[in-house]
């Protein structure tokens, strides 16, 4: 897993950073937790919006 960061390029957007990470499919379920409970906890803890695709 190698995180990547980019800065939003929209002029109407405040200075935001976007990070992305590729996680092996077999680890995703454990990372997110039952009913995405771990994902929600990370969002609260980091004051961030986390999105999962795949």
Query: Biggest sheet: strands, sense, closure?
Result: 2 strands, antiparallel
Average the pLDDT over all residues and give the rounded result: 80
This entry's quaternary arrangement is: single chain
Specify the overall morphology.
Answer: globular
SSE pattern: EEHH
Would you tell me the structural class of the helices and strands? alpha+beta
Count of separate DSSP helical elements: 2
> Could you give the order of strands across the largest sheet?
1-2
Cα gyration radius (Å)? 13 Å
Portion of residues within helices: 25-40%
- Total beta-strand segments: 2
Topology diagram in text:
Blueprint: E1 4-7, E2 17-20, H1 25-32, H2 37-46
Antiparallel strand pairs: 1-2
Task: Describe, in short, the structure shown.
The chain has 54 residues and is α+β, with helices and mostly antiparallel strands. The protein is built from 2 helices and 2 strands. The chain has helices at 25-32, 37-46; strands at residues 4-7, 17-20.
